[in-house]
UniProtKB/TrEMBL annotation, chains A, B:
This is Flavin reductase. InterPro entries: Flavin_Rdtase-like_dom (IPR002563), Split_barrel_FMN-bd (IPR012349). Keywords: Flavoprotein, FMN. Residues 31-166 form the Flavin reductase like domain. It comes from the Bacteria. Pfam families: Flavin_Reduct. The keyword Cytoplasm does not apply. Belongs to the flavoredoxin family. Coiled coil: none annotated.
């Protein structure tokens, strides 16, 4: 079936949201942890975290223009620190539940039963139940004028991960960590590894890694 | 195990690339199809496509500062059109192979055996073997000064997908389409649906969709 620009515009709003959110393919499932300047904790699930570069180590995340997620964005802009925590198959329902529109002063940690965890003097809360915890410092943010979403770029300053999941070459085995994936707005998936492939070269067919 | 900023900087380059590329979680696996102003086709795998908004329907993709992928970026900037095509489990090796540094005038379609497919007068080639094909028009691009990567934002103007995979509410069943996921630089995964969850509300526990 083929849809053109006009077809997409004619979709009812919720239908379009489900459809367009499905188009990019599988997405990462992460919880963003923050604290307001007066110490109130905030936690929200996002499927918009993406790799931006390894050297310096950078991650991007997109925030919607108007939503409950603005608490998280405001905290990041004010405190310059936040955490990104992988969602796993033991906490996926609690993670999804953080997207409910709780009152401004209600902590999503308390509301969902997820446990805040602090490391040394890093200001933002990690999620104790997450098996891969990342601490970031805000580098820059900008509004995408096309739709008023906000792109936030942070530098990775802290990573906490089970060493058994880190391969000799630095690759992290996400299945061992029980990390899950998202599709669309609300569908959660476990994964099964097909294989890793060697660095591709023009005169050599694709080869699986031992 | 805990890594701080200095630990990450001390990693050998390849180790750091594998490690940091794994941190965001599962990524989408897509092939970007373009054609140069004089008609030469180009195809490259990317794991950096992300959802940017449903209304207007927008997608983002990050291109690295210096790599074989610049052909694709140059074509997009010059022709303003490109395609994004889901990678599935029948073409994952061919898709990965498009990342080899082929000569500038060598088509990755020819080199890998993937088949270009054109629709009406849309200028960029789709991948015939892909089960979800998206046509985009360039909206804007910008260099992220922190690391000289380039963010390209496009408007979705064409979507081709099997109707059986589109649910009543607009959600697209990616497993039915055989779409796969990537982790790190080179690991490919199939997925298994856990469940879809209802829109979260503060006074209601997370509920699976029927």
């Amino acid at each position: 079936m083929i849809f053109n620009t006009q077809d997409l515009l004619n979709f009812p709003d919720r239908y379009r949201a489900h459809f367009i959110n499905s188009l990019s393919g599988y997405k990462s499932a992460n919880l963003v942890g923050t604290r307001s300047p007066n110490g109130e904790e905030n936690l929200s699930i996002v499927s918009s975290v993406f790799h931006l570069g390894a050297h310096p180590p950078l991650m991007g995340v997109i925030f919607r223009p108007h939503s409950v997620r603005r608490d998280t964005l405001e905290n990041i802009l004010q405190t310059k620190t936040y955490t990104i925590n992988h969602v796993n198959s033991l906490i996926w329902k609690e993670a999804h539940q953080t997207s409910a529109r709780y009152d401004e002063h209600q902590s999503e940690f308390d509301a969902t039963g997820l446990t805040p965890y602090y490391h040394d003097n890093f200001g933002a809360p990690f999620v104790a139940q997450s098996q891969l915890k990342i601490g970031l410092e805000l580098c820059q943010h900008q509004t995408i004028e096309l739709n008023k979403t906000v792109l936030v770029i942070g530098k990775i300053v802290h990573v906490e991960v089970d060493d058994n999941a880190v391969a000799e070459d630095g690759f992290i085995n996400l299945e061992q960590l029980d990390t899950i994936a998202v599709s669309g707005l609300d569908c959660y998936h476990t994964t099964s590894k097909i294989a890793r492939l060697e660095y591709a070269k023009p005169n050599k067919p694709a080869t699986t890694k031992a």
